[in-house]
Backbone:
């Protein structure tokens, strides 16, 4: 496994070996740390959100974002995977905070990307192990059914979704349960990929309104009125942002039908 990325110099920071400021003037004080929503125990207010946006722009967020995306692509070896890992890294940045005096923005993003990538690798290993166990149980159930004379042309029974055969189940029942589980997993994977693409696009465009809208959609909220009640924003802001998000959906997902974000459209 590769080593975590080394921190890069902060935007505007003096390079090693650079001369002291002319006139002996002390360097400006570092920017205050952003604590993160986990430490605050609540979502950001409008003023706090604007302050965070200003802080990120000051430290060249766009340049750092592109560098982190390139680093994520190097690890994931796919654009969709890189965008997914980076979107989760940005979510962690908002949740866990960042102290500019301790680490530059580029280094912070790269370390979060590296952390999310290692989690992805661990989850992939666990998922493959579970899939192998599932296939093994399915083959054992089929063999048992054949040994008992139930070859799929007769008999009735039930099959659990995870593939474990109940009393009287047939191999046809097993195949049906497996196919249903695979369809559900595929729908869930497509919805997650679509969400990740839009999330990354809205973050890159600094479109906070549509980021908030996307978060509510992921929670299953489809009503703009309900979003406005739960948010500090006016409903008109969500309506005014509709053209931007539909344009992004058509460009990235090939449709502006919002049901494409649902696991069971």
Residues:
């Amino acid at each position: 496994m590769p080593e975590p990325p080394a921190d890069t110099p902060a935007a505007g920071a003096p390079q090693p070996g650079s001369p002291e400021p002319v006139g002996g003037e002390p360097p400006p004080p570092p920017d205050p740390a952003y604590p993160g929503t986990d430490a605050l125990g609540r979502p950001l207010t409008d003023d706090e959100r604007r302050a965070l946006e200003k802080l990120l722009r000051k430290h060249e967020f766009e340049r750092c974002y592109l560098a982190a995306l390139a680093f994520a692509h190097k690890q994931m070896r796919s654009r969709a995977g890189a965008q997914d890992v980076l979107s989760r890294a940005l979510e962690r940045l908002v949740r866990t905070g960042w102290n500019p005096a301790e680490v530059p923005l580029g280094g912070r993003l790269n370390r979060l990307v590296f952390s999310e990538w290692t989690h992805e690798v661990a989850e992939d290993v666990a998922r493959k192990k579970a899939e192998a166990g599932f296939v093994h149980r399915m083959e054992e159930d089929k063999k048992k059914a054949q040994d008992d004379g139930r070859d799929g042309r007769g008999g009735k029974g039930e099959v659990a979704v995870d593939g474990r055969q109940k009393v009287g189940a047939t191999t046809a029942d097993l195949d049906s349960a497996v196919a249903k589980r695979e369809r559900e997993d595929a729908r869930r994977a497509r919805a997650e990929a679509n969400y990740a693409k839009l999330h990354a696009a809205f973050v890159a465009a600094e479109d906070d309104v549509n980021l908030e809208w996307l978060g509510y959609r992921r929670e299953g909220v489809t009503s703009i009125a309900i979003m406005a009640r739960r948010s500090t924003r006016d409903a008109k802001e969500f309506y005014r942002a509709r053209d931007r998000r539909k344009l992004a959906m058509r460009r990235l997902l090939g449709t502006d039908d919002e049901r494409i974000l649902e696991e069971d459209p």
Observations:
- The longest helix spans residues 105-147.
- The chain has ten helices and no strands.
- The two ends are 38 Å apart (CA to CA).
